Amino acid sequence: MNGVMPAVRFDHVTTVLGGRAVLDDISFDIAPGESVVVLGKSGTGKSVTLKTIMGLMTPDAGQVFVEGEQVTDAPRHVLSEIRQRLGFLFQNSALFDSISVGENVAFPLRRHTDCDDAKIEEIVSGKLAQVGLESDYDKMPSQLSGGMKKRVGLARAIVLDPPILLVDEPSAGLDPITGGEIDDLLCALRDQGTTLVMVTHNIPSARKVARRLMVLDAGQIVAEGTAEELDRSELPLVQTFMKSEGSG
Amino acid sequence: MFAARAARDLFRPPYEFSEILKHLYELGARSAPLIAVSGLAVGVVLSMHTRATLERFGAESMIPAGLAMALIRETGPLTTGLLLSGRIGAGIGAELGAMRVTEQIDALEASGVDSFRYLVVTRVAACLIAFPLLTTIMNFAGIYGGYLAETLASGMSLQLYSQRAFAMIDFPMFVASTLKTMVFGFIIATVSSYFGFRTTQGTEGVGRASTQSVVVSSILLIIVNVLLVQAIFVLFPSVR
Known about the structure:
The complex is a heterodimer. Chain A is an alpha/beta fold. In chain A, 37% of the residues lie in helices and 25% in strands. Chain A is built from 9 helices and 10 strands. In chain A, the strands form 2 sheets. Chain A has a 6-stranded mixed β-sheet, sandwiched between helices. In chain A, strand 1 and strand 2 form a beta hairpin. Chain B is mainly α. The two termini of chain B are 35 Å apart. The radius of gyration of chain B is 20 Å and the shape is elongated. In chain B, helix 8 packs antiparallel against helix 9. Chain B has helices spanning 2-10, 17-28, 32-54, 63-101, 104-110, 115-154, 158-166, 171-197, 202-235. The interface between A and B is medium-sized, with 23 and 12 residues.
């Protein structure tokens, strides 16, 4: 890391679920501005990795740091402050279904800033325009398609301009075109300097977004490197992944 | 642990006033029609039964007082609690359960919000405020439901009925019996929030959380009511 404080650090993290170590003594660093994709079969701890970074899950052993601050065992007020520097795009978007699209995106602003209503509306409209949904401010989440929900989820995740964005299966359940549009939005954020940590099964998407890929299997990182480096891997699991063209 | 945390966080800022107001409307104001109509019906039925019994002893004039005492002391609070454990308990269990399985609770946490304070404590606070008010609505609706039955049966005037109904009701009795429903509100809100929060297994889990919320809170409410009646008798001897 050349002395630069990592955006995310896993230090010997172990998480046991249902008697099985889904993360088994894992350590890695993610540098600021880096875009990392975590690959692996279902149930290998990819989403657990994201939720552990966010502090939504507590590891059984080890430490997790975000921009040098310990997430594991952090008091709630510290965790709340750390989470304001993290955006999270959930696999199923997780929009609040009782409030409108605009209010979903405005939610973090209302909680964590002193902006007045006019300023909030201006920021939210800007973020919705960024994801191509500027005309859907007043719609309810139930009126949106899966792809639109993902875009709203992304707008909500980036509304506080977090330096780190965690993305869980962005193209899951979407057609290739819509999935590609989400990838373009993520690439734009990456190019603006946002640190991206993405979980996906979709190799074309991973190739497009990631500068570094990590392959998880049996609780371990079994391969790590650029897409080109993983293309040359001799591990059967990695070969299978890198040759697949599935869309998640 | 869950209930203890809810009780502790009720008195710790920051307070989510806008959410409490929203739940007061959803859980409280929107329950008022159910409570009022039920109270009216309970009053009519109680009056009819009481008349049938007291007529044998020529004590029909005691009907308003007996009805009011029965309603204010026990029937009103307990009926309100059981009705609301159905309406509110099922609602909270299902709503929080659905939020859990659709990751909305995780999304709240990811937004830097304490989901427990935002979702649970606000509902508990709203129930603590709403239950005594709804019980009062139930009591008055029941008493005047009794008047409807009584005026049809005997032609008793509203003024005379009211005089007789409230003649034996003293303030400590009314306050003690009404305020005990705050405990009912706390039980229903925490039990149903607990089942909603720990929902797993998708929509099936949501249904289970909703059912468990109603069943467990109703049973707890009936058991706790016995203890509360004993406590009221000790703390307010004049109520006996």
